């Protein structure tokens, strides 16, 4: 299962870097929970798709992400927690900036296929300059903390 989990994370990275929201969302469960970097909560694959289309057309237009698996913690034969690290480069006011975060995925096998049931993205504050974070918070189209469908 570990090789499949690495491939799933590679799929997310590749889909992000191609700005393909449909491919990105395709590995999420129909009713997935997705907590983005500022704490907003998307519910469902369709919401994950829509939100990523929006951010790739706005704040993360021209961005590039690198995702690395740091640890896989199996919770049974068909469920695992995947701890990753992401480095995201994007533009703010014409300048390239980078932020780092620690996405955590809960992945389950359903009908023979892996799917992301839950995704929690935690910003690594020490890896972001305050000015870039302030701009990100102000510019992010999804700042709410409640479910966004």
Nutshell version of this structure?
The chain is an alpha/beta fold and 149 residues long. It contains four helices and seven strands, in the order ααββαββββαβ.
Q: Name the shape in a single word.
A: globular
Largest sheet: 7 strands, mixed
Helix content estimate: 25-40%
Strand order of the largest sheet: 3-4-5-6-1-2-7
The overall pLDDT, averaged over residues, is 89
Question: What's the gyration radius in Å?
Answer: 15 Å
Flag low-confidence runs: none
Tell me the strand percentage band. Answer: 35-45%
* Number of E-state strands: 7
CATH class term: Alpha Beta
Query: What is the CATH architecture annotation?
Result: Roll
| N-to-C span | 31 Å
Name the structural class.
Answer: alpha/beta
The CATH topology name reads Nuclear Transport Factor 2, Chain: A
How many separate structural domains?
1
SSE pattern: HHEEHEEEEHE
Describe the structure.
The model has no long low-confidence stretch (mean pLDDT 89). This protein has a single domain, classed as Nuclear Transport Factor 2, Chain: A. The chain contains four helices and seven strands, in the order H-H-E-E-H-E-E-E-E-H-E. It is of the alpha/beta class and 149 residues long. A seven-stranded mixed sheet has the order 3-4-5-6-1-2-7, with helices on both faces. It is globular, with a radius of gyration of 15 Å.
Q: What key attributes describe this structure?
A:
globular, 7 strands, alpha/beta, Nuclear Transport Factor 2, Chain: A, 4 helices, single chain, 149 residues, seven-stranded mixed sheet
């Amino acid at each position: 299962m570990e090789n499949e989990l690495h491939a799933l994370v590679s799929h997310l990275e590749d889909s992000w870097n191609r700005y393909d929201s449909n491919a990105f969302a395709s590995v999420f469960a129909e009713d997935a929970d997705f907590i983005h970097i500022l704490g907003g909560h998307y519910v469902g694959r369709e919401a994950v798709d829509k939100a990523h289309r929006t951010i790739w057309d706005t704040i993360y237009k021209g961005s590039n992400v690198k995702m690395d698996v740091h640890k896989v913690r199996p919770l049974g034969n068909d469920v695992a927690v995947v701890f990753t690290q992401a480095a995201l480069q994007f533009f703010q006011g014409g300048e390239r900036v980078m932020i780092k975060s620690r996405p955590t995925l809960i992945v389950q096998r359903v009908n023979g296929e892996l799917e992301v049931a839950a995704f929690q993205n935690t910003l690594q504050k020490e890896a972001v300059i305050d000015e870039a974070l302030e701009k990100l918070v102000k510019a992010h189209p999804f700042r709410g903390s409640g479910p966004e469908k």
